[in-house]
Amino acid sequence: MGRAGKAYVGLVSSPGGGLFLDLAELSDDEQLLREQAHRIAVEVLRPAAWALDRMTPAERIAPGSPFFAAMGTLKALGYHRLFLTPEAGGPEQRLSALTQSVVLEELGWGSLGLATAFLVDMLPVMCISSFGSQELKDELMVPWVEDETGSFHGCWAITEPDHGSDFIAVRDTESATYGRSQLVAEPVGDGWVLRGQKSAWVSSGPIATHAAVHAQAGGDGDLTHSLFAVVDLDQPGVRRGPPADMMGVRDDPQGEIFFDEVVVPRQNVLIPPGPLYPVFHDQLLCLTSSVISNVAVGVGRAAFEEALHHSRTRIQGGGPLARHKNIQLTLYGMFERVETARAYSRTTLAHTQANLPGASAEALGASPRHARAAQVFAKRTAYEVAHDALQVVGAQGLSRDSLIEKLFRDARSLLIEDGTLEVLALDAARDLIDNYEHSTYDMEEMMATW
């Protein structure tokens, strides 16, 4: 409910067949899945996100919170299985990258926060399916995949109070050695012990049952001395700070996680310290960048559609706003940016999935510069479009009863969440400087042939 005693109901468009033309060719089954995802976004995600945005941080994680109902609905419908391989419990025929992009966009259109919660929930399972032992798969992955009530929920514990976006700078030899981590791992017996903490910005941290954890195992800041593990957060020694009261993305609770002599069995360490860790870290960021970019497209599309609907129905100066040329040019610019971001994000996700190590015998690794560029471009697009949408809507868009107001705050958060644009761009720049291949030619030889 808004402060005026009413809930704002945003524009509900049919995906691709209404206000937005999607040039992608979808099969009948893919179109049905898209329509279902949009319906879930309309009927479940948007109302839950609206309610969560107006709650206190403590209310958002209390029993009966709309957060748990929304995530439970996604689990009951099997959405947490859609992105898995058949071997890991996913569909008999794995979804194409295009179909995954379509679903991710619809989730982002419905709620950036709940889409983020959905993605970090899947991360531990996807990593176990690729790197876990059969013992760990049987013990944890199978019941997680079969869960249809929300009994399991994951988070990605990577950022720390003194270390945020610098975790991305894997190619910067100066910043990659950033000093001692605030979460360290020490080998003990047949496993490891964790000591320290992760920051207040861990998405789903206050409510997660398990975490995908990065920890330093020696060698201050050297990535080869880090490990990646799946940690049970309901065991002794784990403590959580209060959920943070954020400006945006309030529909996914964020908070600190403290580890005091927390035991991690050897089988839960998916990537041990060594030369494999930086490669894994880099390729994991390629995947998350490609995924987040498609979610960001959904946020931008939502803002564009709200502005377009408002300009068609709002009477200003004796007629609809949409008849004024400056509004027309603004709407066109928004449309152009969202369509471009969508096309690039989809292409990048397809390339990334096809080239991740292990995806095929020919896969040599996803392209970091393209994956980071997709995330930077899509997140910047979402913010710029939300900014323009707010300008089109005007004073009404500043009201807490306006969906545009929430979309603007969420889009602004994207410029920091999952890596700041500046650090992502610098990482991409270093990759292209070091690895971009270009054609060479001898100018004199070319001239001689003319």
| CATH fold node name of the largest domain | Butyryl-CoA Dehydrogenase, subunit A, domain 3
Query: How many E-type strands?
Result: 10
Oligomer: single chain
Question: Span between N and C termini?
Answer: 74 Å
Q: Strand order, main sheet: write it out.
A: 1-4-5-8
CATH class of the largest domain: Mainly Alpha
Radius of gyration (Å): 23 Å
**Uncertain segments of ≥5 residues (pLDDT<50)?**
1-12, 14-19
- What best-fitting shape do the alpha-carbon axes yield? globular
Estimate the strand proportion: 5-15%
Under the CATH scheme, which architecture of the largest domain would be assigned?
Up-down Bundle
Overall pLDDT: 90
What's the domain count?
Answer: 3
Estimate percent helicity.
40-55%
Structural class: alpha+beta
Largest sheet: 4 strands, mixed
Query: What's the total helix number?
Result: 13
Order of helices and strands: HHHHHHEHEEEEEEEHEEHHHHH
For this structure, what is the CATH homologous superfamily of the largest domain? Butyryl-CoA Dehydrogenase, subunit A, domain 3
Short note summarizing the structure:
By secondary structure, the protein is α+β, with helices and mostly antiparallel strands. It is 49% helix and 13% strand.
Walk me through the topology.
Elements: H1 28-53, H2 57-60, H3 66-76, H4 97-110, H5 112-131, H6 134-146, E1 154-157, H7 173-176, E2 183-188, E3 191-203, E4 210-216, E5 226-232, E6 238-240, E7 254-265, E8 269-271, H8 276-313, E9 315-316, E10 319-320, H9 325-355, H10 368-393, H11 403-414, H12 421-435, H13 443-448
Parallel strand pairs: 1-4
Antiparallel strand pairs: 2-3, 3-7, 4-5, 5-8, 6-7, 9-10
